[in-house]
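Let's study a protein:

===
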Amino acid sequence: MTGSKSAHLPDRGVISITGEDAGKFLQGLVTNDMALLGLAPAIHAGLLAPQGKILFDFFIVKTPDGYLLDTARAQCVDLVKRLTMYKLRSKVVISDVSDDYRVLAVWGPAAGSPGEAAHAVSFSDPRLPGLGLRILAEKDFADDIAAATGALAASADHYHAHRIGLGVPEGGKDYAFGDTFPHEALFDQLSGVSFTKGCYVGQEVVSRMEHRRTSRKRVVPIVAGSALPGSGTEIKIGDVAIGTLGSTAGNRGLALLRIDRAAEAAAKGVPLTAAGIPVSIELPPFATFAIDAQPAGA
């Protein structure tokens, strides 16, 4: 055994996109640059509304026949519909193949790939190296492929505790689809958006937020001295809500907060609370933004 862990993520599904126009089709829609797949096995990306908010997030991995998208299982039907709406005359075939695959995560010391498995596609999580590997395994071979990694079997909850500890949000858990901009969901911090590729749906809004630095909300890690309350709990300054708690694991969690208001509270020495429990923000090492707590005139 390697000391690593592996878990089946049952809330993840898989979409297949094939056909001679598949790459060009996706390039005109998603937030990231498909050309990066010439340099790495997978990219992290999203599909936005024209107003710039995230409708779907996913990983895109190249296969001999086209592309597979690792996405939220509950979103698969709607994602296929949305992609089909944009298809027009493009020569692509879009299919929900979730029933044919299991999505596995492998993480920890010396997290190992199953190698060139005939019935799986594996890739390093493109958001953050510490997240380890993801494997899209054909269902009938998933158990054997998981065993081939040499990792200890773990639960999806264990994986999410690992993800939360690293400060990495997930759509539908830490931010709401259809109501969150990519910067708020840390796409700019976790390699989910390209600022140099051509146009895609919602690109103008994302570009404006990047250049004007207008994102006042961010998903940030929080920590408390005791177990945190459930997802959806408001994070408050006194009686004023400035955000919402998302995923939690014990005394650690992720919350979508007004970071400008959090900075004001820190400058005044006013604590943040969740259901009356004092909480503090611990920015992850990858963050390029700050929550400054300098009082006016300092």
About this structure: The chain has six helices and 16 strands.
